[in-house]
Structure formats: C-alpha cells, structure tokens
Write a structure and sequence with these properties.
By secondary structure, this protein is mainly β. The protein is built from no helices and twelve strands. It is globular and about 45 Å long.
Length: 182
C-alpha cells in the first residue's frame, strides 16, 4: 500500500515522506514533528544499504536539532539478544545490500515522546522489521530502544535514521503523527 493511501485515517496524520537514493541519513526534525501536538509517531519505511550486513540505526534530536549521542544514552534490545547501552538506537541489524541483489528491510516503528515529568523523560522506539540477508537468516525481527533518563535530561524533538556505516542505496520513510484522541 502506498504511504499516501494511509494519510489521515484512523487517527494518523501524514506529516512527511522522505526518500534517499544515496547519502548517510534521513532526518525528521521539529519542523515536521511537533511534540506539542503529537506525543506519538508511526514510521513506515524500507532500507537498503550500499554495503552488506549494515544495521539501520537512529538517534533522537534535541530541541536545537543536534543528535543525542551521549555515551550509554540508548538502551537497545534486539530480538534474541540482550539489552545493550550505546550512543545510538538500533532498528534492524545485519541487513542485506543492493550489491547482493537483496531487498534490505521493511520496517514499521512506533515512537513515543511522552514526557512524564521533568526528571522522567521517556522517549522510546519499538520496531517490527522484515529483513533479508543471503549470508544470515532473514525474517521478522523485533527491537526496542529507549533513552536512559539517568543519562539524557533533555526532551527529544526529532529523529535521524542512518546506516551503521556507509550510505543508503535506497531508503524511504514516511512519518505519521498519532492524534492524542486516537
């Protein structure tokens, strides 16, 4: 289903769609994501790296548009693994590349920017991904990443997606705001 077909249905409001055929990041900043209007967002996308075995990663942005990359800022869990702390969150690992004639990954992510209080900032991204890689097992992968409130004390206002290294061969991501009444 085309992203435009989902627009403004069931409490979702289409905010933007960005496509990259090269480059190292896709960013949705506060000009797209208004945290005063929407506390939750849904992303639909596909990711194909230019080199094999890359991870699709992300960082939240602070109010100035700077990526939050503090040591141990993100706690991430990939299905089948354990909780790890790092400077970025991860959506999917070991994704097949265009060089290997693979489709990469197709993902759906749910972002919650709820601020529950000054000392309890909560930003989390949970994802369901279908990935392929001829060198390793493909299939459905679930992941979750959240900001560590003991490390990060600023409320995020955006997000940037990027391959762990290298560039996108192709990437298209649509973002939808979830109406608070939905």
């Amino acid at each position: 289903m085309a992203l435009s077909k989902i627009t403004n249905s069931g409490g979702l409001v289409h905010l933007a769609t960005t496509e990259a055929t090269s480059g190292s990041a896709i960013t949705f900043n506060s000009s797209v994501m208004d945290v005063t209007e929407y506390e939750r967002y849904v992303f639909y996308g596909n990711f194909l790296p230019d080199t094999d075995g890359q991870d699709l990663s992300f960082r939240f942005l602070d109010s100035g548009g700077t990526a939050i990359s503090t040591t141990n800022a993100y706690s991430t869990f990939l299905e089948g693994g354990s909780l790890t702390s790092r400077t970025f969150g991860q959506i999917c690992g070991n994704t097949g590349s265009v060089a290997d004639n693979e489709i990469g990954c197709i993902f759906q992510s749910f972002l919650d920017f709820k601020q529950r209080g000054v000392a309890d900032i909560c930003a989390s991204l949970t994802s369901i991904t279908f990935r392929t890689n001829s060198a390793t097992a493909g299939g459905v992968v679930q992941s979750g990443s959240f900001l560590a409130p003991s490390v990060v004390t600023t409320q995020p206002t955006g997000i940037t997606f990027f391959p762990a290294s290298g560039n996108f061969a192709r990437c298209k991501i649509g973002v939808f705001g979830v109406l608070s009444s939905a």
